Automatic annotation (TrEMBL):
PANTHER family cross-referenced by the UniProt entry: AMINE OXIDASE, AMINE OXIDASE [FLAVIN-CONTAINING] B
Signal peptide region: none
Bilayer-crossing regions: none
Family classification: Belongs to the flavin monoamine oxidase family.
Entries under InterPro entries matching the protein: Amino_oxidase, FAD/NAD-bd_sf, Flavin_amine_oxidase, Flavin_MAO
Required co-factors: FAD
Keyword Oxidoreductase: yes
Keyword check for Oxidoreductase: yes
Alphabetized SUPFAM superfamilies for the sequence: FAD-linked reductases, C-terminal domain, FAD/NAD(P)-binding domain
Protein known as: Flavin monoamine oxidase family protein
């Protein structure tokens, strides 16, 4: 068992942990980053599957994600725009397929009016929300006590309008059934992107990609840390003491299967649902125990289908497709920069994702490709490469895209989410305000927690 002594031990080598470690190292503090997986990146993972480069995890960059854009520029990476020339496709409640351009789905004038009116109402509500402090809104408790689905259905009896409004934060972002989270949680998701309108605008939220894959961000950040990053090192025990409570000198000791790291501070830079994998000595305070039990991961399957050519472009289609009635509720042209082959990416979320995993792999593939064919035609059924990103089976992730509170949990516990416990600090995209659930939020949280530790270290 090797022993190390550092100023800060960072648990988790995703974008948040590696950003924090780099900020601290630049400021003159010593760090050790302990990562359970055999790779860095966390929920960013660019890999080659059957000869095709696929973004198994996060991949998009939107114009409001300033922390991510700054990091991409600083690392010398290039971006390119998602292909979006041509018509989008919408499948309606009876299975009819419509081509359209612009942001509004091709629905009846009455449904369009309901969607527009409620979107305007939501934008006004979101404008009042501070994404860093949603629980501080005067109506936070009221908005956190009603589900997203119930609130929408109280606004209109137009089911198609409700389904289209609901999936922007439900299936598409929080990846939970819309009855399982609150209106306030939905408003936070929208506020983190600047507005509800931004969240439903695919050309905004899914704007650009990084040439060569987004995992290059954590890979390059880890490269700068060199031997201070330790892979295959899940932390089993974290001993800590807080001098402000009279319990010892203050500091932490992190123990893995092969090493012990003594440090002044610890950063837990991984999904909060994994805190229970670590034995804390002494136990964390009651508030944290309660808080962490009210957070859970959503679940979405990211489906990659690679074809010899991007055949949909020849039909005048952009590749952008939506339907709250389809197994794959949204899909996009995900062709790699400079690639002659065409790639589609589709998403199967929440209850649908649960349901298809009761099927055999072959039947699941058949059903998902059948759904894609409703958007793009029969050619979609015959990809040369097919792959499902199943983050729910990842031991060190256990869902996707991120964690959110159950009904009523956000106003009750949100204010304590980022609060340090003695020398232990918390940072990941799941607890960000701006950039919540995105790489941008992870980088913001890494910067935030590093600044807090530096303030303490220099006090």
């Amino acid at each position: 068992m090797s022993e190390l002594t550092r100023d800060v031990v960072v648990i988790g080598a995703g974008a948040a942990g590696l950003t924090a470690a780099n900020e601290l190292k630049k400021a003159g503090l010593s760090v050790a980053v302990l990562e359970a997986r055999d790779r860095v990146g966390g929920r960013l993972w660019t890999d080659v599957i059957d000869g095709a480069m696929l973004e198994i995890g996060g991949q998009w960059v939107s114009p409001d994600q300033h922390a991510l854009i700054e990091t991409i520029d600083e690392l010398g990476l290039e971006t390119y725009e998602r292909y979006r020339d041509g018509d989008s496709v919408y499948v309606g409640p009876t299975g009819e397929v419509s081509r359209f351009t612009g942001e509004m789905f091709p629905v009846s004038p009455e449904t369009e009016r309901a969607i527009a009116d409620i979107t305007e109402r939501l934008d006004a509500m979101v404008a009042e929300i501070d994404p860093d402090r949603p629980w501080a809104h005067p109506q936070a408790e009221e908005w956190d006590s009603i589900s997203w689905d119930a609130w929408l259905r109280a606004q209109t009896d137009d089911d198609e309008a409700v389904r289209n409004l609901a999936f922007a934060t439900g299936s598409a972002m929080l990846t939970k059934p819309t009855h399982a989270f609150s209106l306030l949680q939905s408003l936070l998701m929208a506020a983190s992107a600047g507005s509800y309108s931004h969240l439903v605008d695919a050309d905004f939220i899914l704007d650009k990609r990084v040439v060569g894959g987004l995992q290059q961000v954590p890979l390059l950040l880890a490269e700068r840390l060199g031997d201070d990053v330790f892979l295959g090192s899940p932390v089993r025990t974290l001993e800590w003491s807080d001098p402000s409570t009279g319990s010892g000198q203050g500091g932490v000791t992190a123990t893995t299967d092969t090493q012990t790291v003594h440090a002044r501070y610890a950063i837990l830079a991984h999904a909060p649902i994994l805190y229970s994998r670590i034995q804390f000595v002494p136990a964390l305070p009651r508030r944290q125990h309660q808080l962490h039990q009210h957070l859970s991961m959503g679940f979405v399957i990211k489906v990659h289908a690679v074809y010899e050519t991007p055949f949909w472009r020849e039909q005048g289609l952009s590749g952008t497709a939506f339907s709250p009635y389809e197994l794959s509720h949204e899909a996009y042209d995900n062709t790699n920069h400079g690639d002659e082959r065409g790639t589609l990416v589709g998403f199967v979320s929440d209850q649908n994702a649960d349901d298809v995993f009761t099927l055999s792999a072959e039947e699941r593939k058949e059903r998902i490709l059948e759904s894609l064919s409703h958007y793009y035609g029969p050619e979609a059924k015959n990809p040369v490469v097919y792959y499902e990103s199943d983050w729910g089976s990842e031991e060190w992730t256990r869902g996707a895209y991120a964690a959110s509170f159950d009904l009523g949990g956000l106003h009750r516990y949100g204010a304590d989410l980022r609060t340090a416990v003695g020398p232990i600090h918390f940072a990941c995209s799941d607890m960000a305000g701006a950039g919540y659930q995105h790489v941008d939020g992870a980088i913001r949280m890494g910067r935030f927690v590093a600044a807090n530790i530096l303030d303490k270290a220099h006090a």
